[in-house]
From TrEMBL:
GO terms for molecular function: catalytic activity; zinc ion binding. InterPro entries: Endo/exonu/phosph_ase_sf, Endo/exonuclease/phosphatase, Znf_FYVE_PHD, Znf_PHD, Znf_PHD-finger, Znf_RING/FYVE/PHD. SMART domains: PHD. Pfam families: Exo_endo_phos_2 (PF14529). The lineage of its organism: Eukaryota, Metazoa, Ecdysozoa, Arthropoda, Hexapoda. GO terms for biological process: cell adhesion involved in heart morphogenesis; larval heart development. Residues 1-56 form the PHD-type domain. Gene3D superfamilies: Endonuclease/exonuclease/phosphatase, Zinc/RING finger domain, C3HC4 (zinc finger). The keyword Zinc-finger applies. It comes from the Eukaryota. This is PHD-type domain-containing protein. GO terms for cellular component: extracellular matrix. SUPFAM superfamilies: DNase I-like, FYVE/PHD zinc finger. Keywords: Metal-binding, Zinc, Zinc-finger.
Length: 374
């Protein structure tokens, strides 16, 4: 094969072919040095173009110059500027509308903030009123504590064997600060020279109302003393019925207790808003008690032990009274009971008189009376 430029015979190691015109020539004939030719990679040789083809490509890629009419160009510019002005006006309209919306939103939020400030001021006023009410409650609590102290000073002989005889006067037992209410044994009726009885001593500043309480029926040889105590703090008043009882152990005991249970049950129905506390020597020696929980009283375990335990359980269930005494006597029995619909704390205290009766330890009964308005 001959070189297309010098027409001499080509050798395989010195020829190069143009990819565009397919002409084969010596590398020297197309202006390549021997060093450049040897450095050329085979992949680049396959894409190599001769100088003539490169020049023709550049000419074909050059931009064409067209003659333009100046008037047409001005019309084109005017059209473009008009379109731009239209776009600007549309954008101005959009911005104006969006600004109006933002202004309206700010106005609405301003109104909400104003309403919130008003609500906060109202809440602050309510809090101030609440603080004032709390201060009033604190004052009522102080009055209630004083009233509770006065109530706790009610002295009652909780079915203790006091040997109440006609020759023993109230002034020998209590000073002039107390009013004494007592029920002595009918010694002539039962042919006794000494006997038992019940007694309640109340501070004179505490109001006692006996007018609306029905009279106690004749309960055989039992002794019953009952009071209606009015507790007041400010304009709030609550009534507490206090019953002190003693039942001797004899053949009439179950009948006597049943009469008292029926009487107190009627009081429960007739005066549903009154609180009741029944304390005394019930002499139910076979009763077994267990603590239910810290917020309630003691539970009678052996309800079916005998007629006395059965009557007591039925009475407590009907009147919803709890038993709170846990102080055992010398024989580890509970003969003295404290039944109430109010939570009571019962503890041992000093005896009212000497000597102390080992079967009936002296008790301090603290009653938790909550005064609330209706």
């Amino acid at each position: 094969m001959d070189c297309k430029y010098c027409s001499e015979v080509l050798k395989g190691d010195e020829c190069i072919k143009c990819v565009s015109c397919n002409r084969t020539s010596h590398f020297q004939c197309v202006g390549l040095s021997e060093a450049d030719f040897k450095r050329m990679l085979p992949m680049n040789r396959a894409k190599w173009k001769c100088p003539i083809c490169k020049t023709s490509n550049k000419s074909s890629n050059s931009p064409q110059v067209f003659s333009t009419d100046a008037k047409s160009l001005l019309l084109l510019f005017d059209e473009r500027f008009n379109n731009l002005n239209t776009t600007i006006e549309s954008f101005k309209t959009f911005i104006t509308e969006e600004f109006r919306k933002v202004t309206e939103t700010v106005k609405q939020w301003s109104e909400k903030i104003t309403n919130m400030e008003s609500s906060i001021n109202s809440i602050i006023q309510r809090m101030n009123d609440f603080d004032l009410e709390i201060s009033k409650i604190a004052h009522l609590e102080s009055e209630l504590k004083e009233l509770q102290m006065s109530f706790n000073e009610i002295k009652e002989n909780n079915s203790k064997k006091t040997w109440l005889l006609p020759g023993i006067f109230n002034e020998e037992l209590f000073d002039t600060r107390y009013d004494v209410y007592r029920t002595d044994r009918d010694y002539q009726r039962f042919n006794l020279s000494m006997g038992d009885g019940t007694l309640i001593a109340v501070r004179r500043e505490i109001n006692i109302d006996l007018r609306n309480i029905p009279q106690i029926p004749d309960i055989n040889d039992a002794n019953i003393t009952i009071l209606n105590i009015n507790l007041r703090t400010g304009a709030v008043q609550k009534s507490l019925i206090v019953v002190c009882c003693y039942f001797p152990q004899n053949c009439n005991q179950s009948d006597s207790q049943l009469k008292l249970f029926e009487y107190v049950s009627d009081l429960r129905l007739d005066f549903p808003l009154y609180n009741i506390i029944v304390m005394g020597d019930f002499n139910i020696k076979d009763a077994t008690w267990s603590l239910q929980n810290s917020d309630s009283g003691f539970k009678l375990e052996n309800i079916s032990e005998n007629i006395l335990t059965y009557q007591l359980s039925t009475f407590m269930s009907f009147t919803d009274l709890q038993q709170y005494n846990c102080v055992l006597n010398n024989n580890n029995r509970l003969l003295d009971l404290v039944l109430s619909d109010l939570k009571c704390l019962v503890s041992r205290t000093l005896p009212l008189s000497e000597p102390e009766d080992g079967h009936h330890p002296p008790l301090l009964v603290e009653n938790y009376q909550k005064l609330t308005g209706n």
